[in-house]
Design brief:
Blueprint: H1 9-17, H2 19-34, H3 39-47, H4 52-64, H5 71-84, H6 87-102, H7 110-115, H8 117-133, H9 137-151, E1 153-155, E2 160-161, E3 166-167, E4 173-175, E5 180-181, E6 186-187, E7 192-194, E8 206-207, E9 212-213, E10 218-220, E11 224-225, E12 230-231, E13 236-237, E14 245-248, E15 253-257, H10 263-266, E16 270-271, E17 274-275
Parallel strand pairs: 1-4, 2-5, 3-6, 4-7, 5-8, 6-9, 7-10, 8-11, 9-12, 10-13, 12-14
Antiparallel strand pairs: 14-15, 16-17
Helix pairs in contact: 1-2, 2-3, 4-5, 4-8, 6-8, 8-9
InterPro entries: Hexapep (IPR001451), Hexapep_transf_CS (IPR018357), LbH_SAT (IPR045304), Ser_AcTrfase_N (IPR010493), Ser_AcTrfase_N_sf (IPR042122), Ser_O-AcTrfase (IPR005881), Serine_acetyltransferase (IPR053376), Trimer_LpxA-like_sf (IPR011004)
Enzyme class: transferase
Family: Belongs to the transferase hexapeptide repeat family.
Length: 278
């Protein structure tokens, strides 16, 4: 994916080395002109920052701020995390592009950064996961709690999530402690990646690359959802899903091939001409 920019001078250099951030700044300039009432908000959220990493961190921190823990403490932790693990910033960009390319309601790169709680919850998880892995588990659990309360997205800090993730609508999402979500996965609202009881240890699903999970689907237990497969809306998945297949129903069963090479990118939820709800 290449984003062209006509910027020259210092911003031209930004466009050359960071096209996603350059595009977002251009879109921010346009909002300031067309919606002057939002100028302060856009300046604070985008134009007053030098990097996309800082803009994302600031926006998420402002949404999670609480009298118990202010936005500056969260922002400071984000900056520590990005400095220690630059891949977090790379994930920000991949996630923004994923939203733009897969969500027909998203017409600009700036929209996930400013408005979309699924994106905000995901990037907050990237911070809480870093905190968890560096031994700061109480801070990580605090952020999980705030994200759940503010965004209705509950992702355990220990869960491992790749890049290029699209969480559509970002409501009523639950991801358990030992879950794994690989790169380029799309998840709609109401999805649970959970356990099946009080078992301990590795007990949550492993979602492989390129999977599309429909709204309301429940995937339970230490099972594998194979690469580039589809889980139809409302399904309850209790067994492994082979790669490149579609499963549907309660309990879910294989109903056919995935229908395309990369379901998470196409967002196609039709089964043989029928709705993926079956």
């Amino acid at each position: 994916m290449v984003i062209e920019s006509q910027r020259v001078g210092p911003l031209g250099r930004i466009a050359t080395c960071d096209p996603v951030w350059a595009r977002i700044r251009e879109e921010a300039d346009e909002i300031v002109v067309t919606e002057p009432a939002l100028a302060g908000f856009v300046l604070e959220s985008v134009l007053n920052h030098d990097t996309l990493e800082d803009a994302v961190a600031s926006r998420v921190a402002s949404r999670l701020a609480h009298e118990a823990l202010g936005s500056q403490s969260i922002l400071h932790a984000f900056r520590e995390a990005v400095a220690a693990q630059p891949e977090i910033g790379e994930a920000f960009r991949a996630d923004i592009v994923a939203v733009y390319e897969r969500d027909p309601a998203c017409s600009r790169y700036i929209e996930p950064l400013l408005y979309f709680k699924g994106f905000h919850a995901l990037e907050a998880h990237r911070l809480s996961h870093w905190l968890w892995n560096t031994g700061r588990r109480d801070f990580a659990l605090y952020l999980q709690s705030r994200v759940s309360a503010v965004f209705s997205v509950d992702i355990n800090p220990a869960a491992r999530i790749g890049r290029g993730i699209f969480i559509d609508h970002g409501h009523a999402i639950v991801v358990g402690q030992t879950a794994v979500i690989e790169d380029e996965v799309s998840i709609l609202h109401g999805v649970t990646l959970g356990g099946t009881g009080k078992e301990t240890g590795d007990r949550h699903p492993k979602v492989r690359r390129g999977v599309l999970i429909g709204a309301g689907a429940k995937i339970l237990g230490n099972i594998e959802v194979g690469a580039c497969s589809r889980v139809a809306a409302g399904s309850v998945v209790l067994r492994d899903v082979p790669p490149n297949t579609t499963v549907a129903g309660v309990p879910a069963k294989v109903v056919g091939k995935a229908g395309c090479a990369e379901p998470a990118l196409s967002m196609d939820q039709m089964i043989d001409g029928r709705d993926a709800t079956g």
